[in-house]
UniProtKB/TrEMBL annotation:
This is Multidrug ABC transporter ATP-binding protein. GO terms for molecular function: ATP binding; ATP hydrolysis activity. It comes from Catellatospora bangladeshensis. The keyword ATP-binding applies. Keywords: ATP-binding, Nucleotide-binding. The keyword Nucleotide-binding applies. Residues 5-228 form the ABC transporter domain. Gene3D superfamilies: P-loop containing nucleotide triphosphate hydrolases.
Amino acid sequence: MASAIEVADLVVHRGARPVLHGLSCTIPEGSVTGLLGPSGSGKTTLMRAIVGVQVVKSGTVTVLGRPAGDAQLRKQIGYLTQAPSVYADLTVRENARYFAALYGLSASEADAAVRDVGLAAAAGQLVGNLSGGQRSRASLACAVVGRPKVLILDEPTVGQDPVLRDELWAQFRDMAQAGSTLVVSSHVMDEANRCDRLLLIREGALIADDTPAAVKAAAGTDDLDQAFLTLIRRQEPAVPGPRAGESASEVPA
């Protein structure tokens, strides 16, 4: 399968603090890749680097054969940030139609995107009057309206009820089957099972890059939560025990 995204030896610093440590991965076309890890692990930084809005210290990110951030990629990448990226003083419908117009798309295509994220009943409401979960869905409608070839979704299902989460994931799968490449960050492990591949990140380093089944097999468990914990603990340095003739209190700290 051809690759849509290639990350090679990516290093990102925030001030003097390293955030990503020479991270490398390849994301296949037409796949749904889950990006998982604790808060502060570097997930959002990696996503920003793929979109092309992150300053990098070294390494390369290639998207659809072009350097990340290339002007020709702008209409081929959709990006949903954690914070809603829509205009609070416009209605849901007006927001979607505005972003659709940027892609040269019709009002009916914008309205279809609003329906797809479950906001048809709220299409005429001002975004500023919506709940947090509804605002996230309004942002999602604007991100998917152009049917981008690459879609980067940072925590797209936070604050959504289980039924809507299931419907959104069905939409993500449909988009992948139609040829789009999706990268979806999440803290919810049951969502990880819906992905084709998983990237598990901890403290800026990649500790797993495989299918959900292979990640669980490598950890010797059928539970992804436990698999993640097992893989993390394997990365932690062992604490030395007392040598022969030495008490525990004498072991160097």
